[in-house]
Design a protein that fits this description.
With 163 residues, the chain is α/β, with parallel strands linked by helices. The protein is built from 5 helices and 7 strands, in the order βαβαββαβαββα. Strands 1, 2, 3, 4, 5, 6 and 7 form a 7-stranded mixed beta sheet that branches.
Amino acid sequence: MGKSLIVYYSWPNGNTKKIAEMIQKAIGADIVRIDTVIPYSGSCNDVVKQGQDEVNRSYKPKIKPLGIDLENYDTVITGTPTWWYTMAPAMLTFLISNNWTGKTVIPFMTNGGWPGHVIQDMKKACKGAKFVHEKEIQFDSEGGDRMVTSQKELAEWIRSLKQ
């Protein structure tokens, strides 16, 4: 797999972060979290409404520098929650801001039962990349942290990333 990097966007205690950290622990890849320059604030409902508006407008928020050089990595594992059937806008900003030619991308997305078209949208944003081992990880539809995808299925997928 070459040198690997995990790049994810998530709430500080979100499900996408938990999955990214599980992958990092299993395969030992470098890991960085995407943060927006202006953090989301307000109630969960406020942020959901803002997220819907941003997705509908194809808004691309500014993100903080990640402190890594993507050129140093052969494989990039990208993780995002599903926001209104696509990736979080911060992930889109990251993807369209980089050169993916010759890179292998392993995308995963978390959702509450509505996977949408996240993986297809990621592929469109990463021109020149080879996509492998795509994974949807479903959580309960109430926005909680109860995983619907089986632990066995998740463990097998993570194990496949070591090869």
